[in-house]
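User: Fold this, then the next.

Assistant: Folding the first:
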Amino acid sequence: MSMLNKAALFSDESANYRTPFEPEIGDRVTVKFRTAKDNADQVFYISGKEKIEMEKSYTKGDFDYYTYTTQPLLDGTVHYYFEIYAGTERCFYNTQGVSENLQQYTSFGIVPGFHTPDWAKGAIMYQIFTDRFCNGDPTNDVEEREYFYINRGVRRITDWNKCPDEMDVHSFYGGDIQGIWNKLDYLQDLGVEVLYLNPIFVSPSNHKYDSQDYDYIDPHYGVIVEDGGECLPEQDDDNTHASKYIQRVVNKKNLEASNAFLARFVEEVHRRGMRIILDGVFNHCGSFNKWLDRERLYEGSEDYEKGAFISEDSPYRYFFQFNNEHEWPYNPFYDGWWGHDTLPKLNYEQSPQLKEYILNVARKWLKPPYNVDGWRLDVAADLGFSEEYNHSFWKDFRKAVKETNPDALILAEHYGNANSWLQGDEWDTLMNYDAFMEPVTWFLTGLEKHSDQYRSDMHGNAEAFKSAMTYHMANFYAPSLQTAMNELSNHDHSRFLTRTNCRVGRLHTHGSDAASEGINKGIMREAVVIQMTWVGAPTIYYGDEAGVCGFTDPDNRRTYPWGEEDQELLSFHKEAISIRKENPVLTHGSTKFLTLDHQFLSYGRFSEEEQMIIVVNNAAEEREVTIQVWETGIPMDAVMERLLLTLENGFSTEEKLYEVKQGELCMKVPPVCSMILRRI
């Protein structure tokens, strides 16, 4: 027998190599492994102490396929890998690919009963920071000095195109849910399938990660049916005098009307075949929160219980951790998240009532009349005061969510390895920093995601890109990976288009104009091609598709440039999204790296029936490349059609055909270029 062809060895957790894809307890699962035709003597499936020889089930093209069907699954994750023999050769295959030994062993996993929503698998998502997207109803705009927040009166920005200031949290541009409603045609035309909204509940900040009332949509984003009262005069910082703000956000008529407005909005989103995810900030709330009421906004209302800041007898007393027991009324000695007194840490361990309240909040917005489709969970690993409690809470949260709506998505914000939360009984998936945003950014720009550091050793390092992607993807089981939120930019990091200038900087060091200097739209297009052809849910941060730039927070929260969009970049996004949606293999197919070189990479997305090749040349020079496309199942002699070509100065959808000879695709690749090719 000839030497073992290790490049032909392949398996993964996709439906191509595992059936059923999301099994139940009691199901038998058929696992598949691929070798070159007539190249292996034996293939073994290894799980725990079991080592079972697999059956060569069939041959297709240049490959043999081996299968093994498990015993009925019990409760608990099944870990497995493969061992392959050819003559005197032996090797192993796991999530990291081929290895000579198991020192870097990372097994595949089957989690019976773990399902993530099918609608979220590979979906095109769109993140909206509501205040900066579109002002659809000027009557609900925050007024100048409507209230006092973090050392100053809030500001109403009347120039929609003004870039954010260094201290921006008080500034309101007027974007609202009506504005999103007005732009649903635009979003559908772009190809968006899921809306993810940054927090929209009552809150004094423009980002709203300091919740004031989890039970109601902020009327500044909804509707104000009973207005009145006064804004604060100059020099007055006492919010008990902010009668206009109190009227707007404490008056139940405005709150109920805003909730009803959201219900109508979600109904319209669903009518169009789209979904919507809300942002849940459950680790901490805000100092304005009605449970605490540090600003004493609710103290005089008969519709609300007294806050824990106001009275030791408050029903919310143990929702917070107070460190001085003798300071009531108006006790300021409570724990704040990371020491911020505007972000009181929620004290779940001492308050079962708080836990049940938050679980009811989770249920409320998933049920009629609101019917939202899932939750994004802010700083989810921080909730509680111990890791043990954190896991216990999220297990109960999952039960509450899935019992209310089994098809709801639970998507967590987390940096680092989240595998312990992704075992099928807590979160569904993550905002995918480790296995998408960071590796893509390092490879294409050499910058980290805040634009705070440049590393020449990472810029164009395709091997580092592959290693990071495969290593961190192994921390996801397939149901989580296919729903992972793959972003290039968001509200916490610099805009990707700004990162293409490879320049370290922030708003306070360089000013807002510098964020647009030296940018390279060709690199941006390369990133979008990777985003739209990678496993997971491609998520566009509002305005990225229109050419919005910006350093990290708050500069990344510029307004959408209606009427001044980069039309070519916008058209390109539509084409890339359309290609993804027209080719299901880009959502559900297997993924395999092919050619890797400095500033160059290629990979395949494939099944036995369909194969696509993605090529990225991030170098400033043309190069000749040879890609072993047979590794994806493309026949030794075949024809590839080019669906999309991006260049430094534009893009093309003009068809071009390439011949595959002896399993190789040889081609000249222009500088700063990417291509999507499909086998005919």
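Now the next one, as you asked:
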Amino acid sequence: MPIIIHAEFELGDTLVRYQAPADAPTSVGLVLIPLAYRERTVTPRENLTEDCVTALPAWMLPVRAWEVDPLVHVHVRGQTHAPAFAAGRTQRGGPATLGLRLQSQKRETADDGSTLIRTVLVADYGLECTHELELRAGESAFRVRTTARNTSAAPLTLELLTSFSLGGLTPFVEADEPGRLKVHRLRSAWSAEGRHEARSLEDLQLERSWVGYGVSCERFGQVGSMPVSGWFPLLGIEDEVAGVTWGARLALPGSWQIELYRRHDQLAISGGQADREFGHWWKCLAPGETFASPEAWVTVVAGDFDAACARLNSPLKAPLAAQPAGEQTLPVVFNEWCTSWGSPTHANLLALAERLHGSGVTYMVIDDGWAERIGDSFQQNGDWVVNRRSFPDGLRATAEALRARGFTPGIWFEFEVVNPGSKAWEETTHMLHRDGQPLQVGTRRFWDFRDPWVHEYLAERLIQQLKDNLIGYLKIDYNDSIGLGHDGAESPGEALRQHLDGVQAFLRRVRRELPELVIENCSSGGHRTEPSMMALTAMSSFSDAHESPDIPLIAANLHRVALPRQSQVWAVLRATDSPQRLTYSLAAAFLGRMCLSGEMHLLSPQAVKWVREAIELYRELAPILLAGEAPRRTVDCGPSWQHPQGRQAVLFHDSVAGRAYVVWHDFAKPGATLEVDLPAGREWRVVRDWTDQPGQAQVRGNKRLHIGGLRPFSGGVVVLGRV
């Protein structure tokens, strides 16, 4: 029984195909195909023909080789679970899912050319699911979400609801051709975010079983309030033979999951809110009640994983228009964390300001330690009372002094948590609980952002403090995870989702009351680098890697998940740094938003001059970083990041302006040269070779940049222009 095409839409450079089995034409699934590859798609084989299958008794034959992956997957409490060894591995594909049937499908087009396809599925047991796929003007990734509504007269409890599900991978081969599909993911660990993993389906044991019966499934994600702990919420599937890659990404601040699923020839992928089995989540819908899944972004491209990531980054641009106007020039940040290590004072901030005056630094950020510590603990956050020993005249006096010297003063808050020793520690009524007890992780308890009292308390302690003290920059930190969830009316996972929704609601309130405030998203460096948090902030800390040799590697890896203009990279400078070490650190900051720290007040005059040159060059190149295409990376670093070998180069290119620059770093492996392919169609020349020992960069044959004379752990920036 063949697959039939229910509907096709040409959206941008993508063919959006809704397909169904001919024997169940209302059971639709979604396939994305590059428009230029439309004629390359093939009809999947009908039945398995391997000898081990055809040798089966006649009553077992034929065995179908394909299936249409449903557009939406759900599991409803009380319904039968899927067979074929799925229990405990996945809740996809059960009777609740198979009971959904197509009711309607409608295309809507806005005046700006944005398109929305709304597909409504209904089930006899009383569930209606509305699947929305939207392509907005100027974006190359589709936004997808699912809204479930209880149409029955009794409560229904959801235990799984996918945001997206894509099937038919790959549509360019009729059978299960081995070695063809590669799975791309980004691992994440503290101070080592974004490590790329590429493995075959076979490596992950996702081959079809010999008779297509047993479920093969890889379910991964994270459980808790740090969405980038362990993995980034991102997946790529590459057909290496066709040269096509599918990408998917989730936008949510809490527990999530992505699944790779296979029973037949073709692969299916899905993802969304972590389900009951993985994330302790279930949601009871009263009659008439609805629940909307978190948003997902999906795409397909004739290209590799990096090309898919560039498309998945396109929706990140729209929220940036709401940022303060000054952010459009990508101002340089100085954060004193690696200067005082938690002991900022009015005096040391003014010493830094004097040294940085006129340097091109805009934001001067006071990090942890400005608030009162009653006892001996390093952190006693929660009360947010100014430490008068360090700031005898209060924060406003320091902020006024910084503004008088041309800086926008910034301050650090970890406002979602409370530490022992603070008066707030005893306000347990307004904190998250688990099993009836205040939820504590290490030395942290967590405010309950479902509680209006918490919002008003922090409006006074945070928002009013920012207003009263003329603060123009807020660094939001968050340094441990809630874990599986906490007490609530329904499930730990749903309670966690509601709490984090409250956190984001408070952030939106901060933005409303202080529209010119610049907000930095930091969570132990990079553990909240996901779209829903990034949409609320001007930039995100790339990592807590401050002075380690892997900073260039982490910063470049994060280009797959963050626009460089939103990725804040540390350059920590020490009085003992050699010119080579200073340049290595400063060059890494050209990979994103430059954030300086360290001993600026102790640097030699020659070192200060070099730092000022770097800032001046960064500000000159910022328009390329702001408006250019996705960076292109060349790397050979070996398996270790803490002990990197080889070298790396990253090309930033603005094709409209005809300008480019290359950030390069050499690591420990012997080798004296680096070659970088340059954008075709122009004649290029070296405009500036910024490094501590310049003169080794040259364009050869108008095709490649050659950098010679490399030394271990050196770096630099080569500026390129048209001949």
